[in-house]
Amino acid sequence: MELISLPLLIGLIALALAFDFLNGLHDAANSIATVVSTRVLSPRNAVIMAAFFNFIAFLFFGLHVATTIGKGIVSADIIDASVIFAALMGAITWNLITWWGGIPSSSSHALVGGLVGAGIAKAGAGVVESGLIKTAVAIFVSPTIGFILAIILMTIVSWIFRGFSPFKVDKVFRGLQIVSASLYSLGHGGNDAQKTMGIIAVLLFSQGYLGNEFHVPFWVVISCQACMGLGTLFGGWKIVKTMGSRLTDLKPVHGCCAETAGAITLFTATAMGVPVSTTHTITGAIVGVGSARRASSVRWGLAKGILVAWVLTMPAAALVSATFFALTRLL
Fold first, then answer.
1. Is the residue at 1 inside a domain?
2. Is there a contact between 45 and 182 (Cβ–Cβ < 8 Å)?
3. In Å, what is the CA distance from 8 to each residue of 22, 161, 232?
4. What three-state secondary structure class fits 217?
5. Which of 242, 253, 287, 322 is the most buried (most CB within 10 A)?
6. Using one digit for the tens of pLDDT, what is the confidence trace for 261-294?
7. How many domains does the structure of the chain reveal?
8. Angle at Cα 216 formed by Cα 212 and Cα 217, nearest 5°?
9. At what angle do helices 252-272 and 6-37 cross, to 10 degrees?
10. Which of 285, 286, 254, 281 is CA-nearest to residue 266?
11. Rounded to an integer, what distance in angstroms lies between the CA atom of residue 27 and that of residue 315?
């Protein structure tokens, strides 16, 4: 085990929290895109709501996702300062690139890719195949589930409200969408913040600060939830525009169904300890509500570009991470 100095340990924890902040900034659109695009809430009120539910998510979920990230992607035996630094830099770099381009990529899979790239660069192995496969499969499963659930919900809602005027439907779902957006923000905070918790916890574990048993200290939980919420307050407005209006035209009923479908998916995945992409999930759900009206409602060219970014995220972040790891060995 390679022990590091306390200042370096603190610096790496600070870098992990910076990633968590950027995750909230990059993924704010996940929680607020639909509620802003339907004008149910102003951007300011939407990010305040999302940040609040991001922060309190630890009260409702276990730490299964943090455990998966901490022990289930690469072996804890190969974790050291260089691996953590390279993994975080790979994820941060890819997040900044996609944020600048307004592309709703996955912060979660960028982090997983960063871990894998750094782990392979160090040991040539050390990847926990079961955890990596579970995460990779979720790239396709979580948006698919969000898509299917959104279509089912839209179908049910359309049948229940078939005799209502458009004005009445809009009025009902303007209120309900605040609830659905809150639930999705809760799911976002529950799944995404845990990824940074896992990184910090495995770093502490590798340095002997957690004893012989891996766990996530409470101060790590609170710090990560706070940084996630703070990042959300600043919002990723380019991505909000892409998801909220460019993929398909949304009304409150569509936003409510998309967010509810996404929240169900996230709650289930978090309970199972699967680090899914909140971005993929809500995008699939938005495409689902658009498709439920008619296939031509969805801008499939844009959706195809987003899908390409999803597939590229893990290998791209892994490549950047491996490069950073190589640079640390030259210093």
1. no
2. no
3. 21, 59, 27
4. coil
5. 287
6. 999 999 999 998 888 888 788 888 988 888 887 6
7. 1
8. 95
9. 150
10. 281
11. 20
Q: Specify the amino acid at residue 257.
A: C
pLDDT of 215 reads 92
**pLDDT band with cut points at 50, 70 and 90 for residue 299:** low
- Exposed, middle or buried, 44 (CB in 10 Å: 0-12/13-18/19+)? exposed
Two tokens, residue 329: 């060995």
pLDDT beyond 80 at 325: yes
pTM to 2 decimals? 0.86
Task: Spell out the SS3 assignment of 246-268.
Answer: HCCCCCHHHHHHHHHHHHHHHHH
Share of the chain above pLDDT 70, in %: 89
Instruction: State yes or no: pLDDT of 166 exceeds 90.
Output: no
Q: Which of 145, 141, 142, 165 is nearest to 153 (CA)?
A: 145
Averaged confidence pLDDT in the chain? 86
Rounded Cα distance between 147 and 92, Å, is 28
Could you identify the residue written with the tokens 């910076």? 18
